[in-house]
Amino acid sequence: MKIIIGDIPEIEEKAALQIRGILEAKPDAVIALAAGKTMTGLYKRLGDMCAAGEISFRKARLLAVAEFVGKREKSCRRFIEDSLLRHTDALPENSFWPDPERPEGYEELIASLGGLDLAVLGIGQDTHIGYNEPATPFDSITHVQKLTNRTKHQLSERGYSEEEMPGEAVTMGLKTLVGARQIIVLAEGGEKSAAVFQMVYSKTITYIPASFLQIPLEVTAYFDTAAASEL
After folding, report:
1. pLDDT tens across 160-201, in order?
2. Contacts of 68 (CB under 8 A, 6+ apart)
3. What residues pair up with 30 in beta bridges, in sequence order?
4. Is the distance from CB of 118 to CB of 184 less than 8 angstroms?
5. Full-model pTM
6. Which residues of 142-169 are buried (b: 16+ CB within 10 A; e: fewer)?
7. How many whole angstroms separate alpha carbon 165 and alpha carbon 136?
8. Could you report the per-residue pLDDT of 40-98, keeping only the tens digit for each?
């Protein structure tokens, strides 16, 4: 695992440049995209780069890492569309979303596209990646996951009301994500520092899902100084 620490604009810029390099080498790269507050600045940077002609998503195949179960105004799809896709040249027919009614179909899609070239991930305060909550088996593939109270608390801090709060999400599994050829992990803020420490230094155990990111060779973790404060 390669770890890069800096202020927030610096790490977002470096992560965006890594994504640009992947798309320059393979314009039709298959990229899994996480939703969430941490991704806002990175996705804005990618949109600005696309507007400036510095990057193109036109041939890229883009897959959401997860989606909440049930029709919701605040969805992962809406976040990715509003924060990234509408600001790039990504084609709607090349954007894909998991179906909670048939999660195994997402695995079939990924296989048909040749596998994930890149997974862009955040990390939850309880060390979840995607919505693989603690105790998710390592060999999990795309599945429907019940959200923990801690995850719901995080969502409430982001403005989700009790009525808007999802109870479940369909998410790429740990095996799916760890199988990506390259992985970018982004963490910002002191509230993520304990999870970052566990991700980097804990044993690889199911109660710390992010610890399995120690296994792949091509993982680049971008942390701001607050998130990295316990390393």
Report:
1. 888 888 889 999 999 999 999 999 999 999 999 999 999 999
2. 74, 75, 76, 166, 168, 169
3. 61
4. yes
5. 0.96
6. bbebebbeebeebbeeeebeeeebbeeb
7. 21
8. 999 999 999 999 999 999 999 999 999 999 877 789 999 999 999 999 999 999 999 99
